[in-house]
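Pilot study result, target chain (502 residues):
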Amino acid sequence: MRGLAKVVVAGVLALGLAGGPLAHAQDKKGDDKGAAKSDYDLTPFPADASIKQVTHVAGKTLNYTATVGSLPVRDDKGKKIGEVVFTAYTLDGPRDPYRPVTFAFNGGPGAASVYLNLGAIGPKRVQFGAEGDSASAPVRLDDNPGTWMDFSDLVFIDPIGTGFSRALVGDDEAKKAFYSVKPDIAYLSRIVFDWLVKNGRMASPKYVVGESYGGFRAPRIAHYLQTELGVGVNGVVMVSPFLDAKAEADGDFSPMPWVITLPSMAAANLEKQGRLTPEAMAPIEAYARGQYALDLLKGRTDPAALEAMVQKVAGYTGLDVALVRKLGGRVDIGTFLRESHRNQEKIGSVYDSNVTGYDPFPWSADRQSGDPILNSIIAPTTSAMVDFVTRTVGWKVDGRYNALSNRVNELWEDGWYRDAESVTDFRKAVANDPKMKVLIVHGYDDLSCPFFTSRLIVDQMPPMGAPGRVQLKVYPGGHMFYSRPDSMAALRRDVMALYGVG
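Predicted structure:
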């Protein structure tokens, strides 16, 4: 999940710079007598807890162990300054030294890993994120037909301030240690390292998957593991990733913000007509990166080109020509989400513009409601995860669970959104290891992290090694396209190909 900061900054979405790499150490069964006292008087976390479970996928019965526990984060003086909670699923039976282990991160910043866990790739899932889903629907965990459990063990990591993970220091120190781009990558990479050591899995094939801002994290974590911690990564999967803030900057001058969002708007319009296919999208993508960009750069110097652009954009988006003309052919996300569904007095979600909610103030000049998907997923994901952790697994913790933490988002490094990018480390990580593979996956209807940004980024990368090492796949749906069964199945097939199984 990504976009929390843009709620405040742009009003459109609902949704390390200080110090060096953090030193970590293993707790001894919760015994931490030698560490300095926390800044807070908090109830200690319980010891790791495990439970045997069963799931079924692709005609197979999988017996596995689910473990919930925590790992410490220490500063360079050995003081424990935070505790990161993880949920791990490991296949039962004889240990296979070549069985992969996958580390999963969500985004925000401020999102727990519950969305990938209970929505996309974990052995169990709860339904959320699709049209018609309800915040008050029964919370029931069912076998996940899209799980990766049959070909990889899975470790879901909640960054500090999300899930049950917590800082043990005040806000000022926490901002420097956790709530900033570079320290975030450093301590989370070390958590991966520590889990591997603690569980004797350093020799296993290793994969990193991240969604949204977690997709921003994934290539940077892979690069940090490669270059700072001596851990090779076999593959990286980026789910609806946010990769480069600059691509969306300066829409008054640069054509790029409009170029990257037009294809997703057009895809949503095609989908409503039942005509969304890769073949239907090809000329739209060609127009966006070609004539549309050229006509935007012309500005008001060519009235005929401007009018042709208005007609083209109105046709692609399904919006009224007069409105598009008033906007100069530049349809902003907020306008599209509201105008596309105004006749139904509903609003589209930035995460999937064809998932709608009622507009409580349809006659207001400005939107006055939250995002339909964001408003509907907090309850089912929080309730399902807390019940699983505390009742099913029996990890009895005293604390609040944050599926999405506004507090983390508020504390995050000032101005990070203006120039944060992962493309540099992405390229370096691919160059460093000629055998590492990358899969980037998006939903067509996602306006939070539009697929066309990744398309342009990948197309600008130099060829490095065998063709197909870096792939981009786009599926029907939005940010959480895996809420749709067919798109989840397509993701599973593409990931299995990346892992070399099938």
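One observation from the pilot: The chain has two domains: 4-246+378-499, 254-370. A full batch analysis is planned for the follow-on phase.
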